[in-house]
């Protein structure tokens, strides 16, 4: 007998009471009003398919499926993205971030290719949308059946979901004709609610077969079940359903809820029939066809044999009738939207014609660019809830004077975040340093969308200027995080990649409007950022670039937080110069990551990359120095754009200091390379040198001038097969380094796409394009590296169905988390040469 363990208490029961209490005081965020076309989305990237609104207590929905071929198959139901499901590749094939999302899921174990398509109409209203779920049998020589359950829940207690048969809610001509009784409907099912959330209006939902689909119910293919045939013939083709009233904070656990219900149906059958004469499994694995009063959770289920297709329509009450779809118009709209998508992609991600065309079973270069771009855009999720912060803990090496203090993790008030996520299976939440890379890609597709995400992150910066590097907001997010990574510390940083987003934005502005800076206040009468009132209907996906007034308003609105954040970095991550008799031309420019342990500098993002073997307060970290250089450069740009001259001069001074000090403090003449610095037992400063990603930072961050005497040796090392060059991209650590491939081997050899992107970007934008002694060498390295990297990521994508977290430094094989649709997707930018 099977047992389904339903753990509605969550793994942190003690926290839950606090979370519920905390969510009563929802913080209101300045300027947080989202553009309407972003209200609905596939904002639950952690499940294979789930829709919700980007607001705190929302309507949410999701898809659960399993093959109903044996009584306990409900235990193998698919729902949350998991490597354990052994899916042979899943990901968005079209996703525009606003109104279209098409995904393929190759579930070989269940013998089905699923296609989930979502489309939103009524873009400027509160949104109507539709879903098509299509199943195609992968191997027709093997019998195949699939049971699909679609659940919907209301997180806010402002209304409940009810089944309905009211005809008057529906526009004329819709194919699904509600019958007289809920139990008799074969052609469609209907549910409705008075409100979708405290801000979103009511809705009805229609469930129906796709016109023309030859859906067949899951039938027993053996005579063993003949004795039960009469009993089930009638119910078999029907929609089964379940309506429950659940605690709101558990609605996201749709799978456990339906598993529990289906399991009780199976249990009841065991009792009724005895194990000897059990009916066909698919006839038993059904929802219980019951509805509790005031349900806030509603699930509908169908079980099919062979190919199938069904549609779900979400009709917002106030949506203009013309925006409501039916099965036929949904098909037409999908085809048209895919075409429009491809056209926009050709414009934004042109694939160079001179290139060797990538080919494989998945398609060509164009497919690659389209799918990787769709996947990063489709990795965007919306999260809301408390996180855990420890404001009193300090690490041993962090503070010279500090007394060791006890851990004291506390729940924060709830906050919200719209963020792209690195991996839907392994890391479905916000990661600070990944995000700058994500946004580089997303902004090439839809600049405005990337700014919304940037703004969402900047809103999280606290009054000290700090933001946690991992954002684990709410219970659903928390359920996917190992306990040791839950607590965040306000002295810990992470590479400030969001500065890259700001720089990219201002560069785009500058390119569009020559000589426009500073953006003058009198370009518009509205200069107070609090007064900013955007007229949604006027704005297009690039209006923040087209329109200088909007640009100024946006920059003004983010500038105070950005400055606070910048100053927080400079203050809390300061490194020591004169304390250890180091000589450097700039007095203050030196940096050290806090939060280091003996074997890791998790805060640097390069986790186990080798550093000084004994942590020391006098350490100086080269990578942080370079990140701070890029941050200062971004600040110069914002201040220039806004005409903040005094601030601009301050940032410029920092930047210049970093450019000189990176050589003064980090260049080692004997090794001919850039290194970390530390302090030995005699209190003398010395260099810690490990060839790898760390040592190329002064190049990747473009801090070195093109005629820098240090440039040649970096380029030589990059291109050296015995060091970091491979036919698949740059390795994180030199093959010659004693730590190469050792320990957990995370950043000790494997190839990472984002660091290759930074290297390529620096080569393309600066060292290969501006005249200098190394220009030709840089150009050669650029061309070869780009080809190596793109071809390998493509080859592995084609072979495995996935983009991977990293690639093996000697075979090029994808390894660790997959799909890794965050920064690995940037291979598409590299192919399109967008830097
Ligand atoms: C662009 O961003 C602004 C500010 O958030 C927003 O008001 C506007 O509606 C957006 N437009 C689009 C099409 O994204
Ligand atoms: C199922 O769909 C696939 C793809 O459209 C098609 O090739 C196949 O013939 C279909 N199978 C049946 C039994 O209709």
UniProtKB/TrEMBL annotation:
Its EC number is 3.2.1.106. One of its GO terms (cellular component) is endoplasmic reticulum membrane. Gene3D superfamilies: 1.50.10.10, Glycosyl hydrolase family 63, N-terminal domain (2.70.98.110). InterPro entries: 6-hairpin_glycosidase_sf, 6hp_glycosidase-like_sf, Glyco_hydro_63_C, Glyco_hydro_63N, Glyco_hydro_63N_sf, Glycoside_hydrolase_63. Residues 37-282 form the Glycosyl hydrolase family 63 N-terminal domain. It is found in: Endoplasmic reticulum membrane. It is a single-pass type II membrane protein. The keyword Endoplasmic reticulum applies. Residues 329-833 form the Glycosyl hydrolase family 63 C-terminal domain. It catalyses: N(4)-(alpha-D-Glc-(1->2)-alpha-D-Glc-(1->3)-alpha-D-Glc-(1->3)-alpha-D-Man-(1->2)-alpha-D-Man-(1->2)-alpha-D-Man-(1->3)-[alpha-D-Man-(1->2)-alpha-D-Man-(1->3)-[alpha-D-Man-(1->2)-alpha-D-Man-(1->6)]-alpha-D-Man-(1->6)]-beta-D-Man-(1->4)-beta-D-GlcNAc-(1->4)-beta-D-GlcNAc)-L-asparaginyl-[protein] + H2O = N(4)-(alpha-D-Glc-(1->3)-alpha-D-Glc-(1->3)-alpha-D-Man-(1->2)-alpha-D-Man-(1->2)-alpha-D-Man-(1->3)-[alpha-D-Man-(1->2)-alpha-D-Man-(1->3)-[alpha-D-Man-(1->2)-alpha-D-Man-(1->6)]-alpha-D-Man-(1->6)]-beta-D-Man-(1->4)-beta-D-GlcNAc-(1->4)-beta-D-GlcNAc)-L-asparaginyl-[protein] + beta-D-glucose. Keywords: Endoplasmic reticulum, Glycoprotein, Glycosidase, Hydrolase, Membrane, Signal-anchor, Transmembrane, Transmembrane helix. One of its GO terms (biological process) is protein N-linked glycosylation. GO terms for molecular function: Glc3Man9GlcNAc2 oligosaccharide glucosidase activity. It is an enzyme of class 3 (hydrolase). The keyword Glycoprotein applies. Belongs to the glycosyl hydrolase 63 family. Cleaves the distal alpha 1,2-linked glucose residue from the Glc(3)Man(9)GlcNAc(2) oligosaccharide precursor. This is Mannosyl-oligosaccharide glucosidase.
């Amino acid at each position: 007998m099977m047992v389904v363990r339903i753990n509605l208490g969550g793994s942190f029961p003690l926290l839950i009471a606090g979370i519920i209490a905390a969510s009563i005081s929802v913080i209101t965020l300045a300027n947080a009003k989202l553009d309407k076309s972003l209200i609905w989305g596939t904002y639950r990237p952690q499940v294979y398919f789930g829709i919700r609104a980007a607001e705190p207590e929302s309507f949410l929905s999701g898809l659960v499926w399993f093959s109903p071929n044996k009584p306990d198959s409900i235990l193998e139901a698919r729902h949350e993205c998991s490597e354990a499901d052994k899916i042979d590749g899943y990901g968005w094939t079209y996703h525009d971030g606003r109104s279209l999302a098409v995904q393929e899921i190759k579930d070989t174990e269940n013998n089905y290719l699923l296609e989930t398509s979502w489309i939103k109409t009524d873009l400027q209203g509160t949104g109507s949308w539709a879903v098509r779920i299509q199943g195609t049998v992968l191997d027709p020589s093997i019998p195949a059946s699939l049971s699909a359950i679609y659940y919907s829940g209301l997180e806010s207690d402002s209304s409940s979901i009810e089944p309905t048969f009211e005809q008057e809610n529906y526009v004329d001509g819709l194919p699904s004709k509600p019958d007289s009784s809920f139990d008799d409907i074969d052609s469609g099912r209907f549910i409705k609610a008075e409100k979708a959330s405290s801000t979103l209006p009511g809705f009805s939902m229609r469930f129906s077969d796709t016109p023309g689909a030859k859906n067949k119910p899951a039938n027993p293919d053996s005579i063993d079940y003949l004795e039960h045939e009469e009993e089930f013939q009638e119910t078999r083709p029907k929609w089964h359903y379940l309506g429950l009233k659940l605690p709101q904070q558990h609605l996201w656990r749709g799978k456990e809820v339906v598993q529990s219900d289906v399991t009780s149906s199976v249990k009841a059958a065991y009792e009724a029939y005895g194990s000897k004469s059990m009916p066909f499994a698919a006839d038993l694995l059904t929802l219980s066809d019951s509805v509790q009063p005031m349900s806030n959770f509603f699930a509908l289920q169908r079980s099919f044999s062979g190919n199938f297709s069904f549609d779900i329509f979400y009709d917002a009450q106030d949506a203009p009738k013309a925006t409501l779809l039916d099965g036929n118009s949904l098909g037409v709209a999908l085809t048209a939207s895919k075409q429009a998508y491809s056209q926009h992609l050709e414009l934004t991600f042109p694939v160079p014609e001179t290139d060797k065309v990538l080919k494989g079973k998945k398609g060509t270069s164009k497919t690659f660019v389209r799918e990787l771009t769709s996947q990063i855009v489709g990795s965007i999720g919306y999260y809301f809830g408390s996180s855990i912060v420890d404001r009193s803990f300090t690490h041993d090496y962090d503070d010279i004077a500090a007394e060791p203090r006890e851990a004291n993790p506390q729940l924060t008030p709830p906050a919200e975040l719209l963020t792209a996520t690195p991996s839907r299976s392994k890391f479905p939440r916000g990661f600070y340093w990944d995000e700058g890379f994500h946004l580089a890609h997303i902004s090439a597709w839809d600049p405005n969308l990337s700014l919304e995400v940037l703004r969402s992150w900047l809103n999280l910066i606290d009054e000290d200027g700090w933001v946690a590097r991992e954002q684990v907001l709410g219970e659903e997010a928390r359920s996917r995080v190992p306990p040791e990574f839950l607590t965040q510390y306000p002295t810990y940083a992470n590479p400030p990649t969001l500065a890259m987003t700001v720089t990219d934005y201002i560069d785009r502005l500058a390119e569009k409007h020559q000589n426009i800076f500073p953006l003058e206040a009198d370009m518009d009468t509205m200069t107070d950022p609090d007064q900013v009132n955007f007229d949604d209907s006027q704005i297009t996906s690039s209006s923040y670039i087209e329109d200088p007034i909007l640009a100024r308003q946006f920059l003004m609105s983010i500038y105070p937080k950005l400055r606070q954040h910048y100053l927080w970095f400079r203050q809390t991550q300061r490194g020591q110069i004169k304390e250890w008799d180091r000589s450097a031309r700039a007095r203050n420019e030196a940096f050290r990551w806090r939060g280091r342990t003996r074997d890791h500098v998790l805060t640097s993002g390069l986790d186990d990359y080798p550093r000084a073997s004994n942590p020391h307060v006098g350490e100086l970290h080269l990578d942080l120095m370079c990140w701070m250089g890029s941050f200062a450069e971004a600040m110069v740009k914002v201040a220039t754009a806004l005409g903040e001259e005094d601030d601009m001069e301050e940032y410029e001074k920092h930047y210049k200091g970093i450019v000189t000090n990176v050589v003064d403090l980090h260049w080692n003449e004997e090794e001919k390379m850039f290194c970390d610095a530390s302090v030995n037992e005699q209190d003398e400063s010395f260099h810690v040198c490990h060839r790898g990603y760390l040592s190329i930072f002064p190049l990747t961050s473009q801090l070195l001038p093109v005629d820098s005497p240090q440039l040649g040796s970096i380029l030589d090392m990059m291109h050296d097969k015995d060091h970091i060059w491979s036919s698949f991209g740059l390795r994180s650590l030199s093959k010659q380094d004693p730590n190469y491939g050792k320990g957990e081997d995370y950043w000790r050899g494997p190839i990472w796409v984002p660091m290759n992107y930074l290297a390529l970007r620096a080569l393309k934008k600066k060292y290969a394009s501006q005249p200098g002694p190394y220009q030709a060498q840089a150009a050669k390295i650029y061309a070869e590296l780009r080809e190596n990297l793109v071809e390998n990521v493509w080859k592995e994508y084609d072979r495995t169905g996935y983009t991977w977290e990293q690639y093996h430094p000697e075979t090029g094989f994808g390894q660790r988390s997959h799909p890794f649709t965050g920064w690995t997707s940037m291979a598409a930018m590299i192919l399109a040469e967008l830097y």
